Amino acid sequence: MTEFKLNAEPRVVEPTVFELSSPGRTGVSFPAPDVPLADLPERLLRTDLPLPELAEVDVVRHYMHLSNFNYSVDGGFYPLGSCTMKYNPKINEDTARLPGFTFTHPLQPLETVQGSLALMFTLQEWLKEISGFASVTLQPAAGAHGELTGALIMRAYHQARSDSKRVKMLIPDSAHGTNPASSGVVGLNIVQIPSDPRGNVDLEALKAECDDTVVGLMLTNPNTLGLFDEHVEEVVRLVHECGGLVYGDGANLNALLGILRPGDIGIDVMHFNLHKTFSTPHGGGGPGSGPVGVAEHLAAFLPAPLIGILEPATDELPPLFGYETPARSIGRMKAFHGHFGMIVRAFTYILMHGAEGLRQIAEYAVLNANYLQARVRSTYKVPYDRICMHEFVAEGHIEGSDIQALDIAKRLMDFNFHPPTNYFPLIVHEALMIEPTETENKDTLDRFAETLIQIAEEARTTPDLLHQAPHTTPFGRMDEVRAARELVLCCWLPENYGEQE
Ligand SMILES: *Cc1c(COP(=O)(O)O)cnc(C)c1O
User: First-to-last CA distance in the chain?
Assistant: First the structure.
């Protein structure tokens, strides 16, 4: 048997800025002082700061080189399930950088920022139309922050009715981890609802939990298996009948654009992920944008301020946009107006596509996922095997081999593919969650499917090739156990840092 050896050594040894440093090199030249020189107090001057000394060009090349180690949507296929890593059109970047937007400040007088306010107002209106909700806030910073906002609104709604018994948030077992996390932050008790054999919310289990202590249900539809809940109207009805509200996790809205409006099937409150559905960039932790839409009965609780029309248009003048505070607002969720740059990008994307274009996005996203699923399902088991929406979940193990989802994910990197999401959702054994998005063409999908099929063959014939993958990336397989046990949270520092001379 070939020895199983972890391959954690970097193949490209990149020096750090400290190693590149050479005494006396400098990246800036200060202008001659135009004030008299004065001595600084000795005790404020530190001599033990090990700052690297480099020329500007060395710094630029160093970080440019590091950035080339990153994988990106612009660099290749990124089928990271649940994340909707679609191509971000570059026109979004152009509009977000228009000086009229970048050189404004949120504390400027209203009359001087009417363009920015008009854009935000219009996006609120479009999101209302797309989702079927009565009112929308653009404040939340990301999906999880939208969930927190929604959970606070749901709690405020029950409290306003003096319905104080309600403490339970029902969450299906296929939910994203942020759902229980954000409900937990609000102090609610989380009750998990199992899925049935077709991947829907188990109706009997739901009925058993529906009582007068339910705050609501958090429903992702299509869910994280990429499946549309076949009884969604029944699920909504059951929760409403016991006085609860239904929160829609809108991360998967890409599958529904222009086809189904969540507000129309009775969802009470939902977040959008502008950085997923509406192509604003994400990865590496942000910034994102997670607007929240609510039905009429929750509109009074939205965070303030919303963008509204203070004075309607007249024959001579355009409307005057400004800020509105809903009557029972839960308060502010974010400084100023949320991530304005993301709002401009999403606005551009929606404007560019129009209503027909948005519907096509959903149609192609669903078509691409079903095409891929059909191509790989005879090689990789798809446990909930039915027509999927914009993504599907396969099992990442191969009969007759010890290959796991992780090995398959790492091997895909050798072919310049970003791995799919793995080990999520938790209800699928060795999950590989694949979301191609609408922006990939058939050639890419074919190449990806053929690579997955080849990897399954390698699993049987040359398993060590997979155990030790990736082979072509700047860094090899990391020792994840050691990384977790011997966590190094500090940046790299010279060995003698902190030692007194
Ligand atoms: C991405 C995602 C979230 C969280 O959104 P963030 O913007 O990452 O905070 C929640 N639910 C689902 C299903 C998601 O895919």
Answer: 54
* Residues lining ligand 1, Cβ inside 6 A: 82, 142-144, 176, 178, 220, 224, 249, 251, 273, 288, 290
Is there a contact between 429 and 395 (Cβ–Cβ < 8 Å)? yes
Q: Which two three-digit tokens encode residue 157? A: 């709604």
Domain that holds residue 423: 362-485
Would residue 32 count as lying in a domain? no
Number of CB atoms found within 10 A of residue 374's CB: 14
User: How many domains, in total, are found in the chain?
Assistant: 2
Which residues 6+ apart lie within 8 Å of 40 measured at CB? none
Do residues 344 and 373 both lie within one domain?
no
In terms of domains, do 103 and 151 share one?
yes
pLDDT at res. 141: 95
How remote is the C-alpha of 227 from its chain's centroid? 19
Residue 278 shares a structural domain with residue 333: yes
Pair (337, 416) in one structural domain: no
261: CATH: 3.40.640.10
Residue type, 202: D
Ligand 1, pocket-test mutation among 80, 173, 176, 391, most atoms within 8 A of CB: 176
317 and 418 housed in the same domain? no
**Which residue, by CA, sits nearest to atom 15 of ligand 1?**
82
- Single out the residue of 262, 251, 4, 18 nearest to residue 142, CA to CA: 251
**Token duo for residue 446:** 């074919």
pTM recorded for the entire structure:
0.91
Tokens of residue 421, six digits:
């999401």
> Which pLDDT belongs to residue 4?
40
Sheet holding 421-422, edge to edge: 392-395, 431-434, 421-422
Task: Specify if 54 maps to a domain.
Answer: no
CA of 250 to the centre of ligand 1 (A): 8
Can you read off the two tokens belonging to residue 387? 């027509």
Query: Is there a single domain that holds both residue 444 and residue 341?
Result: no
Are 98 and 173 in the same domain? yes
Residues in contact with 251: Cβ distance below 8 Å, sequence separation at least 6, in sequence order: 82, 84, 143, 176, 220, 271, 273, 276
CATH of the domain at 370: 3.90.1150.10
369/388 Cα distance (integer angstroms) = 7
Residue 176 is assigned to a structural domain of this protein: yes
Check whether residue 339 and residue 417 sit in a common domain.
no
Mean pLDDT, consecutive 10-residue stretches, the chain (501 aa), reads 47 78 90 91 84 92 89 94 96 96 95 97 98 98 97 98 97 95 97 96 98 98 97 98 98 98 98 96 82 98 97 96 97 95 98 97 98 97 96 94 96 97 94 98 98 97 95 87 81 60 45
pLDDT at residue 1 in the model: 36
In a domain, 60, yes or no: no
pLDDT at 307: 98
